[in-house]
Q: What sequence folds into this?
């Protein structure tokens, strides 16, 4: 098999005949999807593994890792390390057998620790002033595989309405340079649609809308949150959204 070189700089050397691909490697894609960095991943690997991991392109490649909670070292694929509870002892304490989760069900994947940007936190805060958000879920079981797992990890989930909210911004570090980001976003939207979910994308920084429910904006403010709620009403009806409304006392006085 001919070697390939990826746009992220990983893979074979194009000077030595490796086939040049215009996309980033699968591992860089998964790192971006889970909002991590390669540096973070390297710190979790045992020191002798780091040199190889720094150049790794495959999400199924196995490494030896150190548990953050001080359990024994363990072997796991990069995918398991990024998207699940790779340490067996941590997994036992997290409980909840994965097999019982049906397609379309939102759940908490305890091994998934995505970082959220300031803007995303602001968006969550503004939405939380309008509707009751469920903070104990970060994943949705889907009927196809996404980065090798039957789940996707939207930015904000409203399981009562089966609506996911994603914040996209070209300036967001680590994601900005990714050519395949849009393809992966569409794939994620389709995977959610198959199990009865709709996605509302907030497209910041001059990004064009991807789908019919998208909210295009310059900055994330109350108006954006209002537009999201309006999209929810359009998708699920006023009654369903009203049932989640945060009740503000008449006259705006604190309760
Ligand atoms: Zn790469
Ligand atoms: Zn552990």
A:
């Amino acid at each position: 098999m001919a070697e390939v070189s990826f746009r992220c700089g990983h893979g074979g050397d194009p000077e030595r005949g490796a086939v040049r691909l215009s996309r980033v490697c699968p591992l860089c894609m998964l790192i971006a999807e889970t909002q991590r960095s390669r540096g973070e991943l390297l710190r979790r690997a045992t020191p002798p593994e780091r040199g190889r991991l720094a150049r790794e392109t495959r999400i199924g490649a196995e490494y030896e890792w150190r548990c953050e909670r001080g359990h024994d070292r363990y072997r796991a694929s990069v995918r398991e390390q990024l998207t699940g509870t790779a340490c067996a002892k941590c997994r036992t304490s997290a409980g909840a057998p994965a097999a019982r989760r049906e397609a379309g069900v939102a759940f908490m994947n305890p091994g998934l620790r995505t970082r959220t940007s300031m803007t995303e936190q602001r968006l969550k805060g503004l939405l939380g002033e309008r509707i009751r958000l469920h903070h104990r879920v970060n994943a949705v079981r889907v009927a196809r595989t996404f980065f090798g797992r039957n789940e996707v990890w939207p930015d904000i989930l409203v399981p009562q309405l089966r609506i996911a909210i994603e914040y996209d911004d070209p300036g967001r570090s680590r994601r900005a340079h990714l050519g395949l980001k849009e393809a992966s976003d569409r794939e994620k939207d389709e995977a959610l649609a198959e199990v009865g979910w709709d996605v509302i994308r907030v497209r910041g920084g001059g990004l064009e809308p991807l789908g019919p429910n998208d909210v295009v904006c310059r900055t994330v403010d109350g108006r954006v949150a209002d537009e999201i709620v309006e999209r929810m009403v359009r998708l699920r009806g006023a009654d369903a959204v009203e049932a989640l409304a945060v009740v503000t006392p008449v006259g705006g006085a604190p309760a």
